[in-house]
Amino acid sequence: DKGNYRHFMAKEIHEQPDVVARTLAHYLxxxxxxxxxxxxxxxxxxxxxxxxxTACGTAFYAGLxxxxxxxxxxxxxxxxxVASEFRYRETPLDPGGLALFISQSGETADTLASLRYCKAxxxxxxxxxxxxxxxxxxxxxxxxxxxxxxxxGVASTKAFTCQLSVLASMAxxxxxxxxxxxxxxxxxxxxxxxxxxxxxxxxxxxEPQIERLARNLxxxxxxxxxxxxxxxxxxxxxxxxxxxxxxxxxxxxxxxxLKHGPIALIDETMPVIVIAPYxxxxxxxxxxMQEVAARGGRIILITDQKGAAAAGVETMETLVMPDxxxxxxxxxxxIPIQLLAYHTAVFMGTDVDQPRNLAKSVTVE
Length: 365
Ligand code: F6R
Known about the structure:
Layout (H helix, E strand, L loop, with lengths): L7 H7 L1 H12 E2 L4 E2 L15 E5 L1 H18 L3 E5 H7 L8 E6 L5 H12 L3 E6 L5 H4 L3 E2 L14 H20 L5 H12 L1 H9 L2 H11 L4 E6 L3 H16 L2 E6 L16 E5 L6 H13 L3 E7 H6 L6 E5 L7 H20 L17
Parallel strand pairs: 3-4, 3-5, 5-6, 6-7, 8-9, 8-10, 10-11, 11-12
Antiparallel strand pairs: 1-2
The site of fructose -6-phosphate has 15 residues, from helix 3 and helix 11.
């Protein structure tokens, strides 16, 4: 049931404050302001040398964000790859490591094959899944459920932000178990996480501005997304979402890679969407943005008030987001990215919930 929405995708975008709150409540103790370690967890984060993450598509981008979190908050190295590459690479793995698989459906063929490889390599198998009865869930030692509810739109939205919520909570848990985070640090991060839904509600208020902007984007034949740090995976996710449902060619790039090639594409016809909360790497991204502006590129900047003031460029449009703690920015910044793709596609008249050539669950390789 789409309720009052025109598409399942719109409904699912708007459900995110609720489902993210529900998912976080599963991993956080809101009285004690701590993370909740799942019962019977078959490993201790303190003893892990590294985590191997494998997934496809949007779930892969959630894993890439998690790499930033695990490495920074828990000093835990993360190797990550798309499942279709990982499964054939014959990566050597030290027994007793943690292999994490992220999948909304829990049925993705390449992800499942990677899981079976890791099992043969004697890894602990953890799954971040939305469908608890799925094959990937059944074959795992421990399940970290996302509580997104059924996702009907083929383009993943709420499953993604729920995956991020689980992974952020896990990274804080890992940081605490590894002695990287103090009890105070943990409390501060848990508090920040609990504020995510409220900030998502604020971000959703940008919808009318985004809808107007989408009319402009719909005229483009190519769009570049840039981000740095944990905004880099979001840039790729934004590009994926846009191409899936609007069929406009888009690419996501690490902002610092701009000068190593893609800058050659910049002209006044190609919109450049820059995802840049005012964080530790903002100044670096701002200088990349200035390079784009100097070449006549049209910039759409997604940032907060401080970022808007410090950008130092003329933008075609600036989406001013709420000022959020750095750790939760990926969840909150997912909203404008999804809305941009959605409204561009609606404007172009594509079949948003069932884009051509795509299936909700990819059970063949
Ligand atoms: C993108 C999208 C796909 C899936 C990918 C993995 O919007 O939906 O890229 O994320 O096929 O699917 P799951 O998560 O079911 O393994």
